[in-house]
Amino acid sequence: MTVNSDQLLEATVAAAEEKKAGRIVALNLKEISLVADYFVICQGNSDVQVQAIATEIRKQAELLGVRVRGIEGMDSARWVLIDLGDIVVHVFHRDERDYYNLERLWSDAKVVEFA
Q1: Tens digits of per-residue pLDDT, 43-88?
Q2: Facing residues of 42 across strands?
Q3: Of 22, 38, 69, 115, which has the maximum CB count within 10 A?
Q4: Distance between CA 26 and CA 46 in Å, rounded?
């Protein structure tokens, strides 16, 4: 099955919600970056939760037939980066999220609203 970036975005956010990720934000980068169509940024309250969120996102992407291009940071679980091609997911430990403040760095991006 082939999915587009919007469908993958919905599945990614749903996977994060399934594992009770906090402060989920999706940024639309289509008009401002060649890196990816979207960034998804979320957080977990513990190392275990960060790893669970990242694992669920990877699992759901693979079920959709999306090749996971890379995952970094699973061992430390402070900032896990998941490269899904059109979407890059950042799963932070809550203690790290505000320090890096990716939302400010990418403030030109539009925030995607979910129902």
Answers
A1: 999 999 999 999 999 999 999 999 999 999 999 999 999 999 999 9
A2: 91
A3: 38
A4: 21
